[in-house]
C-alpha cells in the first residue's frame, strides 16, 4: 500500500467513527481498514528498525525510548524485524495489510524452538506459507507452522525430549508491588509430574475449606489455590497429597475404524511424549478410560447426572467433558478447558439440572456474554452447538472433536 492509500483508508475510518448511526457493515469494514493500516505501520516500523540496527550498537534501547516501552518489549519488536528480514514474502504481505504482526510473531516464536540449522529451513518454509497466513487466523497459521516444526524434528520423540530437558529453566524476581514472582519452563515429563502434584495437593488441601482472601471468580480462585498448594508442597505440609498418584484420561473413540490391535486410544494430555515415556508414566498412574462417539460420552466413571442436588459440577463430569473439549466451546475461542466454567445450558435458576448433557465448558468472557448480553446457547443430541447473537446472527458447530495429545 502507498501512503496515499493509507491516507484514504484513514479518512474513511474517521468518517465512520464520526457517524453515530453507522451500520454494522460499515463499522466492520472500517475495522478491516484499521487492521490494514496497523499492518502497514508495523511493516514500516520493522524496516526502520532494520535501518537502526545497522547504525546503533544497542537498537533495543533506542526502540524502548522512542516507543516509550520496556527494553523487553523493544526486544520483541526487534525480533519481529529480524524475522521479516529473513522472510521477504511475509514482509511484503504485511506491508500490503494482507497479514498482521501476529502472524509474523507466530513465526518468531516457532523459530525459537529450533536449533540454528533447523531455524534457517523453518524460516524458508514459513515464507512459502504466506498464502496460508493471508487466508487464516493467527491461530490457524500457528498450527500450520507447528506441522512444519514437527517435520523438521521428525524423530521418535526421544531426541526432542532430550532437547527439552536441556532447556528446563526457572527464574524468580520481585515486582514493583513487592510480590515474589516465579516463572518456569519444564520438559513435558517433569511438567506433568508437577501439574499432577499441584492438582492432588489442591484437591486434598482445599476440598472443604479455602484460605482467607480466596477470590470468588473461578479462574482467579484456581490460580490462588494453586499458589497456596505450591507453598504447602515446599513447606512439606501437603501431607499425602504430594504422593498422590497421577491421573490420566484415556479417550477411546468408538467411531474409529475396527482394528486387529483393538480400539484407538488417546491419552488426553496437553503435551507430546515419546511412546516409551508415556508407557512408563501410565504404569505408575491411575488411567481413567472414557468412551466417546460423535460428540457423546458413552462411558465414563463416576456420577455424571446430579440433577438438582447441587449447582456445581463434580470431578467426574469435568473429566468426562475434558474428553470432548480442549477449550471453550464457543466457536473460535481457544481458552484452555482448565480455565473454563461449566455452564448450565438450561440455566440453574430456570430449573436446569447439573447433568452432563446440560453442561458446557465456557470461558469467563463468554460466560458473561451468555448471562448479561442475551447470547442464546442450544445443544443438539450430539452436542452440536447453536449460538444465537442478539442481532439475530447464528453460529453453528458440529459435534465436538475428540481431543488428543497430538
UniProtKB/TrEMBL annotation:
Q: What is this protein called?
A: HNH nuclease domain-containing protein
Q: From the UniProt record, list the coiled-coil ranges.
A: none
Q: Which organism is it from?
A: Ilumatobacter coccineus (strain NBRC 103263 / KCTC 29153 / YM16-304)
Source species taxonomy: Bacteria, Bacillati, Actinomycetota, Acidimicrobiia, Acidimicrobiales
GO function term, MF aspect, one: nucleic acid binding
Q: Which InterPro entries would you find in this protein's record?
A: DUF222, HNH, HNH_nuc
Task: Indicate the family of this protein.
Answer: Belongs to the Rv1128c/1148c/1588c/1702c/1945/3466 family.
Tell me where on the tree of life, at the top rank, the source sits.
Answer: Bacteria
Domain HNH nuclease: residue ranges: 316-368
Task: Name the Pfam families on file.
Answer: DUF222, HNH
Amino acid at each position: 500500500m502507498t501512503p496515499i492509500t493509507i491516507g484514504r483508508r484513514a479518512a474513511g475510518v474517521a468518517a465512520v467513527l464520526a457517524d453515530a448511526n453507522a451500520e454494522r457493515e460499515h463499522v466492520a469494514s472500517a475495522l478491516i481498514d484499521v487492521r490494514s493500516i496497523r499492518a502497514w505501520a508495523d511493516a514500516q516500523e520493522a524496516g526502520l528498525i532494520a535501518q537502526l540496527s545497522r547504525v546503533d550498537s544497542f537498537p533495543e534501547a533506542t526502540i524502548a525510548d522512542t516507543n516509550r516501552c520496556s527494553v523487553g518489549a523493544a526486544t520483541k519488536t526487534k525480533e519481529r524485524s529480524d524475522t521479516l528480514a529473513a522472510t521477504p514474502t511475509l514482509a511484503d504481505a504485511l506491508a500490503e495489510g494482507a497479514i498482521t504482526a501476529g502472524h509474523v510473531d507466530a513465526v518468531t516464536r516457532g523459530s525459537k524452538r529450533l536449533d540454528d540449522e533447523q531455524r534457517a529451513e523453518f524460516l524458508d518454509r514459513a515464507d512459502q506459507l504466506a498464502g496460508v497466513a493471508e487466508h487464516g487466523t493467527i491461530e490457524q497459521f500457528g498450527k500450520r507452522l507447528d506441522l512444519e516444526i514437527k517435520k523438521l524434528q521428525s524423530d521418535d520423540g526421544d531426541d526432542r525430549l532430550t532437547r527439552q530437558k536441556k532447556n528446563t529453566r526457572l527464574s524468580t524476581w520481585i515486582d514493583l508491588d513487592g510480590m515474589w514472582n516465579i516463572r518456569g519452563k519444564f520438559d513435558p515429563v517433569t511438567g506433568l509430574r508437577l501439574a499432577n502434584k499441584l492438582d492432588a495437593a489442591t484437591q486434598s488441601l482445599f476440598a472443604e475449606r479455602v484460605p482467607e482472601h480466596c477470590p470468588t471468580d473461578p479462574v482467579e480462585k484456581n490460580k490462588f489455590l494453586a499458589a497456596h498448594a505450591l507453598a504447602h508442597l515446599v513447606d512439606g505440609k501437603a501431607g499425602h497429597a504430594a504422593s498422590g498418584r497421577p491421573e490420566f484420561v484415556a479417550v477411546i473413540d468408538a467411531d474409529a475404524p475396527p482394528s486387529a490391535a483393538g480400539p484407538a486410544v488417546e491419552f488426553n494430555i496437553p503435551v507430546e511424549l515419546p511412546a516409551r515415556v508415556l508407557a512408563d508414566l501410565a504404569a505408575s498412574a491411575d488411567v481413567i478410560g472414557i468412551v466417546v462417539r460423535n460428540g457423546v460420552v458413552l462411558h465414563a466413571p463416576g456420577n455424571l447426572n446430579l440433577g438438582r442436588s447441587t449447582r456445581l459440577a463434580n470431578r467426574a463430569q469435568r473429566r468426562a467433558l475434558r474428553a470432548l473439549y480442549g477449550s471453550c466451546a464457543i466457536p473460535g475461542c481457544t481458552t484452555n478447558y482448565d480455565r473454563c466454567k461449566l455452564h448450565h445450558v438450561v440455566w440453574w435458576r430456570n430449573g436446569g439440572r447439573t447433568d452432563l448433557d446440560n453442561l458446557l465448558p465456557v470461558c469467563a468472557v463468554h460466560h458473561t456474554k451468555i448471562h448479561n448480553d442475551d447470547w442464546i446457547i442450544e445443544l443438539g443430541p450430539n452436542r452440536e452447538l447453536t449460538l444465537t447473537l442478539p442481532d439475530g446472527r447464528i453460529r453453528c458447530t458440529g459435534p465436538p472433536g475428540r481431543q488428543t495429545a497430538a
